[in-house]
Every structure is written in C-alpha cells, then in structure tokens.
Amino acid sequence: MAKSALDKYLFKPFFGSSHTWALGELRKIPKDAFILDIGAGSCGIGEALKKEGYANLWAVEVDKEALKRAQEVYDYAFEKIEDIEKSDFDAILLLDVIEHLQDPSGCLAKALSMLKIGGVMLVVVPNIAHWSVRFPLLFGFFNYSERSILDSTHLHFFTRARFKKMLLSQKSAQLIKIESTIEPFELVFPRWLWNNPIYALLSRLRLFGANLLPGLFAYQHAAVIKKIGTGSV
C-alpha cells in the first residue's frame, strides 16, 4: 500500500535541510506576503510559517490525505494548480516537486505566471550526482527507494548543471542563487547521536563542503529565482 505524502515526505527542521533553507529565505519577505506552497506534503512549512505569523498561506497538494491536512493548516488549499485564479503571489515554493513531473520546465513556467513581478520562487531538486548515488553505481547498483534521491516516483534527475540550465531557460525569471543542502541524517539517527554540539559542528562542515563541491556533496540543489517580466519559455 502506497504511503500518504503525510508519512512519506516528512518535515525536516534541521540545520542544512531544504526546509530550514526555505524558511530562512521566506523570513526575508513581509509576514503579510502571499505565499503559495506547491506540493505541501506533510504541511510542515505551512505550520512553521503560521506559527511565525504569516497570514496569507496557500497550498496545492494532489495527495488526498495530505490535502485534508493542508486545508486545516493553510488559508486556502487546492488539489490542482489550475483551480487557483490568483496570479500575483509574492513567493512560490517548489520544494522537491518538479522531479516528479513529466514536464518540469512547463511547471516552472506555469508557477512563474502566478508570481508577481519582483516576487521570488524557491525551487529544490535532489542531486543525482551525490556521492550516495555515485559510489553504488561504481559497483553496478542503481536501486530505487520509497524516498530520497532515488525515490521511485521521480521522473527526472538533476545535476547542478542541468538544473541551472533549466532555470536560466525561463525568460521571465532571473536566477538569484543556487545553494546546497545536506543529508537529513536526523530522520534515521537516534536523537542522542545528533542532538549535541559535535554533530552540530559536523553539520556545519558538511554544509560548507556541499557548497564548495556541490556536484559531489550537495544532497539537493536549492535555487532562488525572481520574476522580472512576462516572457515565456
């Protein structure tokens, strides 16, 4: 039996994670900004933003169980992006979403059309060139799993170069930056192993290495793009 997005895509409030990175970027915009979370999953981002006083939270989630939860957390939640008529969001999130879609570039273009000029979009994709994929591949292993980089529902795989090329192809957007995340070992390690100063220091070193050599050590590529016009792909 397939897992619900509530159980499969857990919130990761850890140093160096995609969710911590996204929340850090969102804190740069006013709390009355209109934010759209496409692929809300377990709704952890929405819950965190709500606690911090953000007042205009929208979501899209195709998973039925996760959608029910999103309707409780966000101000508005929809099953399909086409159901949303608003086209002037201040920020849009695509966190670990486009790799699941047949047309990731088309999804970016659609999301950009819903963003106001000057608004920002946060996009995160897994790094297929990560060491955890490269090393087994040396020995002939390329095994899918329920989640992470080789999630069995991924239709597209991204290196830093491919991701950057796709972002730059969006004529209505400007690429602001691409950063890296690190592996959320906290999800599998016992709390005593990661809730201490030594692990915190190691995490900072890991993130430094991921940004220094993203092709090998970035668990995910995390980009900020800004809408600058209305041009199409």
Explain what the structure shows.
The chain is of the alpha/beta class and 233 residues long. It contains ten helices and seven strands. The chain has helices spanning 5-8, 18-26, 44-51, 64-73, 104-113, 131-138, 160-168, 191-194, 197-212, 214-217; strands at 34-38, 56-60, 76-78, 89-95, 115-126, 173-180, 220-227. Strands 3-2-1-4-5-7-6 form a seven-stranded mixed β-sheet, with helices on both faces. Strand 4, helix 5 and strand 5 form a beta-alpha-beta unit. The protein is globular. The termini are far apart. The model has no long low-confidence stretch (mean pLDDT 94).
Strand content: 15-25%
Strand order of the largest sheet: 3-2-1-4-5-7-6
What percentage of residues falls in helices of 4 or more residues? 25-40%
Q: Quick one: how many beta strands? A: 7
